[in-house]
Write a structure and sequence with these properties.
The complex is a heterodimer. By secondary structure, chain A is α/β, with parallel strands linked by helices. Helix content of chain A is 34%, strand content 22%. Chain A contains 25 helices and 29 strands. In chain A, the strands form five sheets. An eleven-stranded mixed beta sheet of chain A has the order 7-6-14-8-9-13-10-12-11-15-16, with helices on both faces. Chain A is globular, with a radius of gyration of 28 Å. By secondary structure, chain B is α+β, with helices and mostly antiparallel strands. Chain B folds into two domains: 33-142, PurM-like, N-terminal domain (60s Ribosomal Protein L30, Chain: A), CATH 3.30.1330.10; 151-317, PurM-like C-terminal domain (Phosphoribosyl-aminoimidazole Synthetase, Chain A, domain 2, Alpha-Beta Complex), CATH 3.90.650.10. Chain B has helices spanning 8-22, 25-28, 62-75, 96-113, 168-178, 194-203, 217-229, 244-253, 272-284, and strands at residues 34-38, 41-50, 56-57, 60-61, 80-91, 116-125, 133-142, 159-162, 209-211, 232-236, 267-270, 292-298, 305-308, 314-317. In chain B, the strands form three sheets. A seven-stranded mixed beta sheet of chain B has the order 9-11-8-12-10-13-14. Chain B has a five-stranded mixed beta sheet with strand order 1-2-7-5-6, with helices on one face. In chain B, strands 3-4 form a two-stranded antiparallel ribbon. In chain B, strand 5 (80-91), helix 4 (96-113) and strand 6 form a beta-alpha-beta unit. Chain B is globular and about 55 Å long. The chains are: A alpha/beta, B alpha+beta. Chains A and B meet through helix 12, strand 21, helix 15 and helix 18 of A and helix 8 and strand 14 of B. Bound molecules: fe (iii) ion, magnesium ion and zinc ion (ZN) (2 copies). Fe (iii) ion binds next to helix 14 and strand 21 of chain A. Magnesium ion is lined by residues 32, 48, 69, 73, 214 of chain B.
């Protein structure tokens, strides 16, 4: 007996089913159509501002089945947040139909941009397909979304595809519920879609496939190209060509900051990096982030050629990791070559096109103007990018993803909050600014906005506020920012608060609240929050950064911190780690012995002045920063004295520990670690690095290997964490430890801390959804402000 | 001390406490000097107190600073200073010889600036209740007909000119006050700018804005102008004249020369069509020999100052706010 044969006999019911979440632009209505007709149900489905609305009639048990399967079998890009059913009076409907979209309040969710799917990829490479080599091939399961949406409900008219009239063939597919492109808003083909063009100074513009062919040839010749992709322009060059990579680094004024590479497939990078199963899964997943992979340093297999090795050293100088991603836009597949194409580059440097610190360039005129000194040509197209969206960056730590930057592929997917909040806007921090809008139990994070030093970033910030508001419909009643008096994000927040008050949340409290929130902690019992980063404004006006807080959302006790040392000359001490090493030695009462690498790195006149500056406490702010302690040890050990990009000294110290085998052995063999002196009698507890620094200096002078010093230092920090957490457990009875702050971007340290804490009986919560660095601050700010208001 | 830092905090005190308490449209303009009509004459009127430590420093002392400072405040509304008053607050026990040397330099500075000290007052406070010597000066001068110089007159298109190298006074004071050993000796630029302003006004009376970037430096001065006029200012980082000694001292101490004090410099907003002639006149004057165009006033990012960096970026220049706390995470 089939279900349809039952129709006449069973009692028929009618229900109104509203499906909320990311359900538009993802093939949801055809899915509902197929599901309903397959179950022999009658009624119709439509898109509304509140989600997908289904009115459906049939036997009660079949309707139940329908409501279950609508969640469990949803299409790949859908994220079903809610299925709400209510009874209606049956009207005796017969057949099932897809009804046109109904306008409503914009409460549905926009999907993120998604990598080209396998079906589209097969068509792209198929000479018989009408979209063979079409650089804008897409379907309901893949392609751009967030970056092209100009408003909701998500419909072609509310995207940057609005200007491209569909050809009859595309229109037919678009209207056919059985087609993979039914209501795929960016649907296009050679006849009606956007066009690629290659712009090269003093040459005629090449269009379409000729543009890609010529661009590949230029890249093979060592050229640097601007390539317009999904979320903005990239700069690209052949990653196997040392001269091209060095040229790009020089032109971009990039210092030593690593570039990422785009590889045709996993085989291309196999000789150069290690990628285990979770890493491969991330690399090939629909989000296609940049994944930071450990570089291979062991003996070269035959497939490693010297030229590529040299080039990759320019790609990521002295860096233990290489950022790798796989193609996510059709143009990437075309640039790296389809089967049967002439040989060309198979590994490209692909880095966001921007001036240092500014947001990724999306505007064509701006790209032509601003990027002119950097590139030899532009591979561009005529589909506008409505909002910038940088590539996301992750690494895998202890088998789980650990975000460094949450952007393309995730933005604007909402995060579930453990507690409801009133409509709020949180603006995060000034570096790696990410903002968040929230209402009820959902928070939407923007993509990576950038560093708030530049006018262009401030403008991108304003646009991101608008865009998030447009795609979520949230009108914030509350605006939240960091307490730092010089944060431009906080000043900018005031503009969005109007007459209202901007609520300030302490930096490290926000870090801990952030990791609590993404782990679903409701805050009823406090955690021991380990917040280690470079700089955060403290409630006493000092620069905090080595904090152990006993915290819930409503507040925190500063239980312990790294002992204060003077930070001589603010940002100057950050850029020149040798100053931090000297300040730490000074604070510890240790000699500036002329044979120490940090003393040798400091120019003679600066050494004299720095001593005076410290003696006079002139432009010295007290700091408890763990990030600066990493800098100090890095310089003291002779690893890095000048920081050309954020956390360079710490990254190179971690690399030294890794080369020493810290990854395998673990950095938690407490026997051979250095040791902080933990002063239990003080309130808050104070962790004095003096004895540790004395031991480092002694090791350096005894000629110890830097790798050994680096390992012992990581061990000492993990040991400190467990000792302080133990003390906090004794006092407060809490056995949950939460790790946050940019320092936990250090994989060696993060896994060592987690390991020793677990061994000691702690439950450890870590970041999986948002970055431990300031990119995750906004989420925590929301939660703290929500609780503060509730009290 | 934050409220004396010349930055956002002292602006806040004036705007939130003094202006509402005192009332009056003239004060509400919040200029360094007031322009008032008195018996048909347009007078510029200004007062300033000097608490600098040490009293004597390379390139000057509290005395010539007190004369030149008030002369300059008047000059910034285009007025040639005519008469000064002078008030001393002396701490019991301060040496007469010291007061004598200060008085000498004041007399010399007044003569050099072409201004007469015509009235004064002296108070002595108990030992421990003062800090040696404080000096207050007030001054008046005539504003020439057709001259209307105030921050609100900055308009997009104006060219921004700085009269010379920045940061000298602040670094000189710091070096002696703290006994810092910079490689080379840095002298304060303390000077009276009435003559230089006169030379500029001889080219055109239509100079829009003048400001002496004292406490808070060039960064504060230009920010205040941008805010007062509601315009944007775009500076070119490389065009701003920073002497090597200032640059290296700032780099070592972690300071930004943009926020270091000057006592003999001005920043001018000049209509574009007059800029070349004004610049030439400035360069012909000894106090403007190193004058340079450093940027322009724009109809964009209103109320904000940016510097265009060598690589085409646009970095925001904040109003200095107390200590220069790091933001790098
Ligand atoms: Fe932080
Ligand atoms: Mg003054
Ligand atoms: Zn597809
Ligand atoms: Zn078409």
């Amino acid at each position: 007996m089939t279900l349809s044969q039952e129709r006449g006999t069973a009692v028929r019911e009618r229900r109104r089913v509203v499906v909320g979440g990311v359900v538009q632009g993802v093939g949801f209505r055809p899915f509902v159509y197929a599901l309903a007709t397959g179950l022999g149900l009658d009624g119709h489905v439509t898109n509304t501002g509140d989600g997908v609305l289904v009115e459906i009639e049939g036997p009660a048990e079949v309707l139940d089945l329908f409501c279950t399967r609508i969640r469990s079998e949803a299409p790949p890009l859908a994220r079903v947040a809610s299925v709400v059913a209510e009874p209606l009076t049956p009207v005796g409907a017969a057949g099932f139909a897809i009804a046109p979209t109904v306008q409503g309040t914009a409460r549905t969710l926009c999907p993120p941009d998604t990598a080209t799917c396998a079906d589209c990829l097969a068509e792209l490479a198929d000479p018989a397909d009408r979209r063979h080599r079409h650089p804008f091939i897409t379907c309901t399961n893949c392609g751009p979304r967030y970056t092209i949406v100009t408003g909701l409900p998500y419909d072609r008219a509310a995207t940057t595809m609005a200007g491209f009239a569909m050809c009859p063939d595309c229109a037919r597919e678009y209207a056919d519920p059985a087609d993979r492109r039914f209501h795929a808003q960016p649907i296009a083909c050679h006849a009606c879609g956007p066009r690629l063009s290659l712009v090269v100074p003093d040459a005629s513009v090449r269009e379409g496939d000729a543009a890609v062919v010529a661009a590949r040839a230029m890249l093979a010749d060592g050229a640097i190209l601007a390539v317009k992709g999904i979320g903005g322009y990239h700069l690209a060059c052949d990653a196997r060509n040392p001269d091209a990579v060095a040229g790009l680094r020089r032109r971009k004024n990039r210092g030593d900051k690593p570039f990422a590479v785009l590889a045709r497939d996993l085989d291309e990078i196999a000789p150069w990096v290690e990628a285990d199963e979770p890493e491969r899964a991330l690399l090939t997943g629909p989000e296609r982030p940049i994944v930071l992979l450990r570089r291979r340093h062991r003996t070269a297999p035959a497939s490693r050629d010297a030229r590529t090795a040299a080039a990759l050293d320019h790609v990521a100088p002295r860096c233990p990791d290489l950022g790798v991603m796989l193609p996510y836009a059709p143009v990437h597949h075309l640039l790296l070559g389809l089967p049967g194409d002439a040989p060309g580059p198979t590994l490209l440097v692909l880095t966001s096109a921007n001036l240092s610190g500014e947001p990724i360039v999306t505007d064509d005129a701006e790209a032509l103007d601003k990027l002119a000194p950097l590139v030899d040509g532009w591979l561009t197209h005529d589909r506008p990018i409505h909002v910038p969206c940088d590539d996301s960056v992750l690494r895998v730590v202890d088998g789980a993803p650990s975000p460094v930057r949450r952007s393309r592929g995730w933005a604007p997917l909402p995060l579930a909050l453990p507690l409801p909040v009133v409509p709020s806007l949180a603006v995060g921090g000034d570096l790696k600014c990410v903002l968040a809008l929230a209402e009820g139990e959902r928070a939407w994070l923007s993509g990576h906005i950038g560093d708030m030093d530049d006018l262009a970033t401030l403008r991108a910030f304003d646009r991101a506020v608008e865009q998030l508001g447009a795609v979520t419909g949230v009108v914030p009643e509350r605006v939240v920012a960091d307490l730092h008096p010089r944060y431009r994000s906080a000043q900018r927040a005031q503009r969005h608060a109007g007459e209202g008050l901007v609520r300030g949340v302490q930096h490290h409290h926000a870090h801990i609240a952030s990791v609590m929130a993404e782990n679903g902690l409701d805050g009823r019992s406090p955690v021991v929050g380990v917040a280690f980063d470079g700089t955060g404004y403290g409630t006493d006006g000092a620069v905090w950064g080595g904090e152990i807080l006993v915290a819930d959302y409503a507040g925190f006790d500063r239980f312990a911190h790294v002992a204060y040392v003077p930070l001589p000359g603010g940002d100057a001490a950050v850029r020149r780690p040798y100053r931090m090493a000297l300040a730490h030695l000074y604070a510890a009462g240790l000699d500036w012995a002329p044979d120490l690498p940090c003393v040798q790195a400091c120019p003679a006149d600066e050494l004299v002045l720095l001593r005076q500056q410290l003696d006079l406490n002139l432009h010295c702010v007290p700091t408890s920063s763990m990030g600066r302690l990493f800098d100090a040890v890095s310089s003291l050990a002779g690893v890095c004295h000048h920081s050309e990009y954020e956390a360079q000294a710490a990254i190179e110290l971690e690399a030294a520990a890794l080369r020493n085998g810290a990854g395998e052995r673990g950095a938690d063999g407490a026997a051979d670690g250095y040791r902080f002196e933990l002063r239990y009698a003080e309130t808050p507890l104070s962790a004095d690095p003096g004895p540790l620094l004395a031991a480092v200096a002694a090791d350096v002078r005894a000629g110890a290997r830097t790798g050994e010093i680096a390992t012992r230092f990581h061990t000492a920090v993990a040991d400190l964490v467990v000792r302080v957490c133990r003390a906090a457990r004794e006092r407060y009875g809490t056995s949950t430890a939460a790790l946050s702050g940019g320092v936990f971007g250090n994989a060696v340290l993060a896994s060592a801390c987690a390991r020793v804490l677990r061994a000691d009986g702690f439950t450890v919560v870590r970041h999986r959804a948002v970055p431990p660095n300031d990119g995750g601050l906004a989420l925590g700010q929301l939660m703290v402000a929500a609780r503060a208001a509730a009290d | 001390m934050g409220h004396g830092g010349g930055g956002a905090m002292s602006a806040e005190l004036v705007a939130n406490l003094f202006a509402p308490a005192f009332g009056g449209a003239t004060l509400a303009a919040l200029a360094d000097s007031a322009t008032v009509d008195l018996g048909g004459a347009r007078l510029a009127f200004s007062t300033d107190s000097y608490v600098v430590r040490p009293l004597f420093f390379p390139g000057g002392c509290i005395g010539d600073l007190a004369v030149n400072g008030t002369v300059n405040d008047l000059a910034m509304s285009g007025a040639r200073a005519a008469y000064l008053s002078c008030g001393f607050i002396l701490e019991e026990g301060v040496e007469t010889a010291v007061v004598g040397r200060i008085a000498e330099t004041m007399g010399a500075a007044a003569r050099a600036a072409g201004v007469e000290i015509v009235t004064g007052d002296t108070k002595v406070v108990e030992s421990g209740r003062g800090d040696g010597v404080y000096v207050n000066t007030a001054g008046i001068g005539l504003v020439p007909a057709g001259v209307d110089i105030r921050p609100q007159r900055a308009v997009p298109g104006d060219v921004v000119i700085v009269s010379g190298e920045i940061g000298l006074h602040g670094v000189a004071i710091m070096s002696v006050r703290e006994g810092l050993e910079f490689g080379a000796r840095v002298e304060s630029d303390c000077a009276a700018l009435g003559g230089l302003v006169g030379a500029m006004l001889a080219v055109t009376p239509d100079i829009h804005v003048l400001r002496d970037p004292t406490r808070g430096g060039l960064g504060a001065a230009v920010n205040e102008i941008a805010a007062a006029a509601g315009v944007g200012v775009a500076l070119r980082e490389r065009a701003i004249p920073v002497p090597d000694q200032v640059a290296s001292a700032c780099a070592i101490l972690g300071l930004d020369p943009m926020y270091v004090a000057n006592e003999g410099k001005l920043v001018a907003f000049v209509p574009r069509d007059q800029a070349d002639a004004v610049l030439a006149a400035m360069r012909a004057h000894p106090l403007g020999a190193r004058a340079a165009v450093v940027g322009e006033c724009v109809d964009d990012h209103h109320g904000m100052v940016v510097t265009r960096t060598a690589f085409g970026g646009t970095r925001v220049v904040d109003l200095p706010l107390g200590e220069q706390l790091p933001r790098i995470c």
